[in-house]
Each structure stands twice: as C-alpha cells, then as structure tokens.
Input
Amino acid sequence: MLNDITLGQYYPVKSMVHSLDPRVKIVLLILALVTVFLPENMLLYIPIAAFILLTARLSNVPFKLLLKGIKPLRFILIFTVVLNVFFLPGETVWLEWEFIRITKEAVLTAIMFGIRLVLLVMFSSLLTLTTAPVALTDGLERLLSPLAKIRFPAHEMAMMMTIALRFIPTLLEEADKIMKAQSARGADFESGNLMARAKAMVPLLVPLFVSAFRRAGDLAMAMEARCYHGGKGRTRLHVLKMKRNDYLALLFMALLLAAVIVGNRFL
Amino acid sequence: MQITFRQVSHTYQPGSPFQSTALSNIDFTVESGEFLALIGHTGSGKSTLAQHINGLLKPTSGQVLIDGSDIHADGYSKKTLRQKVGMVFQYAEHQLFEETVEKDIAFGPKNLGLEEAEIAVRVQEAMEKVGLEYDEFKEKSPFELSGGQMRRVAIAGVLAMRPEVLILDEPAAGLDPMSREEMLQLIKALHEKGTTIVMISHSMDDVARFATRAIVLKKGAIAMDGTPAEIFRHADELEDMGLDVPVICKLARDMQKAGLPLEDGIYEEDKLYEALLHLWKGGAADAQ
Ligand SMILES: Nc1ncnc2c1ncn2[C@@H]1O[C@H](COP(=O)(O)OP(=O)(O)OP(=O)(O)O)[C@@H](O)[C@H]1O
Ligand SMILES: [Mg+2]
Output
C-alpha cells in the first residue's frame, strides 16, 4: 500500500555513479543545484539536460524511476508555472482579455521555472537513488566534521539521520501491517469525508507511535550496551578515499558550471 | 463456508528491483469445520497465503473463492467478507489502540455497524471466551496488560465479530508455556464449537495435536497437503525442507531404527503407546 515513495529511495545496482565517494556526490549535487539556477538563457539548459541524461545512463538507474520522483510534485509544478504565466510582469503582450494579461517574458520565465524545478528534483533523486542512505549520512558527517571546531555536533546529527533513515522502511512496514490488521477488523481508511478519514487514522497512528517508542527505547539500550558514547574517538569501518573517477566527476561538473557561466556572458 | 484457491500467485512489488514471488499457483479447498495448519520454512509464503483468504492481499493472478464467488469480483462486499473471515495477525497485541480493553474489542463490531446493546453483549462474550474477566478488565488500558493478556484482548477483538472462519498467524509465538497451552486450548474450543480454523504454526507438535489437515508450503508452492498422519509419514522430506517433526514421530522412528517393528507414520502419544503395548504383549505371548 505504501510503496510509492521514490524520492529518497536507494536503487541497489552496481555502477560508476554508485561507486563514487559519497562526499563527492554531495558536493556534486550542490554544484549541480547552483548550475541549475544560473542560466539566463533557455539554450543553456541543453548541456545541463545532457549532463543529467549521461549521468543517468552511467548510473544504470532506469530513467522511468528518475521521472517517478517528479510525479508527486506535479501539482506544485503546474501550479507554479501557471501562476507565473499569469502574474509575472512583461512587455511583449501575447494575449490580453479583461484582467488577464499574458506576456512573452512571463511565459518564458514560467517555463524556465518549471525546468529548474524538474532538474532540481532529478539531480536530488539521482543522488538518493545511487547512494545508500548510510553512505550518504557518512559523507555528510565527514563534510560537516570541520564544523566540530565550533561545536557543531556533526557526528550526532549524522547518527540521528542514519537511524531515522534506517527506520523509515521499518515504520512503513509496520504501518502496512497495522493497517491490514485494522482492515481485518473492518476499519475503512479509504472512504468518507476528510473528518471521517482523519478519525480513521487513530487506530493506525496509536499503535504505530507505541511501537516507534518501544523500538527507540530498545535501540538506545542496545547502543549503550555496546558502549556507544557519541562521536569522540570513534574509528571507522569504511574509510572514504577519493579515486580517479571522483576527481573526473568533479572536473566534469566544474566544466559544466564554467560553461554555463561563460554562456551567460555571451548569449 | 467453503474457501477455494484457484491457481493463486502473488508477486510483491512487481516491476521493481525488489520484486519477489511469494506464492505460485496455489490450489486447494477448505471445507467448513476443518482445522487447517499451514506449515513451512520462514519466507515460504504462509502469511502471504493467509492474507489472501480475507482479501487483504489480491492475487497477482488466479482467484480466491468463498462459497463459489470470487471475493475480488465487483460488488462483493468486503465488509461481509471481513466479518465472516476473522484474522489474527502475528503479534496481534501490536494493533491495540483504544483507551480501554472494552473499547478496543468493540472496534470490529462497531465497524460492522452493529447496535450498542449488541456490541456490549458481544464484547462480554468474546472476553469470556478468551478468559479475561469482564468486570476486572473492561476499564483497563490495553497498554498496562502483560503481553499474553494483550494478545487475548486482540483475539477477543476478532472473535467479537463472530467469524465463521478464523485465521491465526502464529498465535502462540512468544508466549510462556502456560499462556501458550491456554491459547491452543482456546483455539481448540473454538474449533469444536464449529469455527473453521486456519492456523500458521512452526510447532509440529501443535499441528499433530490439533489439526485435521495440514498444508506444507515450500518456496511459495504447495509441497504436501493431507491429514497430519499423511504428512508425518514423510518425516524425512519435512526435515529436508528444514522443518521439524513431532517429538513422538522422532521417537517412533528411532525405535524403528533400533529394530522395533513399528508401523510408519505414528505421531501421537497414545498411538505409540498402543503400538508398543501391542508389541510387548505379542512379545510376551511369544516368550510363553
Ligand atoms: N511486503 C512485502 N514486500 C516484499 N516482499 C515481501 C513482503 N512480505 C513478504 N515478502 C516476501 O514474500 C515471501 C513470503 O513471505 P511470508 O511473510 O508470506 O512468509 P512466511 O512463510 O509467513 O514466513 P515467516 O515464517 O517468517 O512468517 C518472503 O520471501 C518475503 O521476503
Ligand atoms: Mg509469517
């Protein structure tokens, strides 16, 4: 019942992209997001789209799955684009009727907005699809570790995120189980008005919270029993090391970014 | 009430990298009054099969028929189905949510749209059946009970719907020996009063003691289907599948190996006792 969540789901296959250093992939994502927001000319989205297509190919992730990440956002997407078309100011009027005024500039900007949003989600999905959650938080922890100097609890943050991510599937499974158990007792989660549906969630949420708290308690106990005491002095099982491909990937990203900046000047 | 599976297959998350086929081409019929035990190794598809009986899962292909009509056909009432086929999940105590035991047990009957008076009668009756004193427990929070008591509340919640068929997914798992025995006696009593029982169990001794029929699943397909006597005659095959056999079965086999001329397929205590007595008397007669 609850298996339709792509954003943030790992797709476990082997590929060049999967085996990149998670730190590098996080940096790449940040650079990619910057790149997506830079272009002032529509043409500049061509190399960016080509870059995504190429990365998707190299990652062995079906393109369909990448598009699936956009599906839950389609309403926001349509909403923003439409809103922009109607309300952005512009000079070249394409259509004017009563209070509606559609201009060339507004349409172009709106399309640009849409493209940006789609690319944004696709880049983010690419990261989560190709990086195991644990690797992701590990990379994040390492990137943030310099901040420990100013007492930022990088390790604790990463540990919390790892645990949260680790338990999402467990909780989904649990929710599915409880939902089935209550359906077997005649509960109806699907029909009725908003109020009725919200009320129908009580038999699902109460047991779910109870079990989440029980699990949290058990986990805390199990961690303490194994002498967990925070990040201080902890060594690592997987030591991250940059390889040739990591440098190459960074180089490509830098080239793309440079191309967009240069393109902005000359187009 | 008759339950029929016709070429039922089920695939979880088809088309994704996590795709797994849990059932393939399952065919069987359960008649009213049977006590069917579903056995099989971990991951063999027992729970998946059980959840098809009351329509919680839909077959990827094939049909589930109740009294001859397809439960996934348009117009088949899920409500009636859920009332007729009660399901007690593994660790059923995890589904409790109400403030009081009484309210929790009333959840099912309420969903059926019964009247207050009728619900009250059913709640009391169900609590008596599972051995929970009505006046003592009705106002208690289900969360302050012991694990065994919580499970009884959960089962009472299903019994209050007065199902004709009761499916139980490892009802005795994780209980202490006494609660375990009480649970099994409760199920036996329900069966004797006419409820059809489908029980998933890992304990072959329980199957030997209570079931009238057993289906053995292996990797999502039916490997054996028959009375416990027929199933336990293939003790070696069961053990090859990683399953246990009843203690008496093992004992009889060891005795056979040691040279006693016992017949095959003995799995009940009194049968073994009788057979041994017979041998001994026969032996004594020979000696005279
Ligand atoms: N929600 C699900 N999504 C994907 N696969 C599943 C799901 N539930 C079960 N499976 C898979 O289907 C197969 C059968 O599972 P099932 O739970 O029916 O086994 P079981 O016989 O009840 O095992 P157990 O004795 O451990 O309870 C297993 O391989 C399992 O991994
Ligand atoms: Mg199971």
